[in-house]
Structure formats: structure tokens, C-alpha cells
Amino acid sequence: MGIFSKLKRDTAVVDVRDGATIDLRDADRPVWGFPSRCPECNAFGYLDRIDMRAQVMMQHCPTCFAKWETPRSVTIVEG
Ligand SMILES: [Zn+2]
User: Fold this and answer.
1) How far, in Å, from the CA of 29 to the mean position of ligand 1?
2) What is the pTM of this model?
3) Which of these, 48, 49, 55, 76, is most buried using a 10 Å CB contact count?
4) Integer Cα distance of 74 and 57 in angstroms
5) Neighbours of ion ligand 1 (CB under 5 A)
6) How far, in Å, from the CA of 20 to the mean position of ligand 1?
7) Smallest Cα–Cα separation from 29: which of 72, 64, 65, 63?
């Protein structure tokens, strides 16, 4: 038995397909449950909390300390 037949036998199959798909046409829209870009400086925001009653994400910017709210209605909701 050669080394190549042993390597082939030990090869594990890893499925790297991702179940979640985001339409690239919506790339600029925020995703529900994930921090979005700062509206002031475009840095990555920090998601402070989600108000489930009001369906709003409360975020702030660690760079310029701006605060903003993102209503669920303007976000992409991943299935
Ligand atoms: Zn900012």
C-alpha cells in the first residue's frame, strides 16, 4: 500500500456550504440582530440591545460615540 492510498482513505469530507444566504443587492441594508455601520463615521457599530417590544436595535459607535436606533422594518431578517 502506497502513501497516496492511505491519504485518500483518511480524508474527511467537510461540507463548507453555508445555509444562510444574503442577497448582495441588499448589501447596504442592516441585518436584524447584527451591528450595522455608524451613520456618522461609517465605523462598525456596537449592538447594545434589542427592544423586542418596539422591534428596534439600539446601537452606538465605539469610534465617535454616536447612538442610533434601527427599526426591524428596515433590516434584512435572516430566515
Ligand atoms: Zn461613528
Assistant:
1) 17
2) 0.65
3) 76
4) 11
5) 38, 40-41, 43, 61, 63-64, 66
6) 28
7) 72
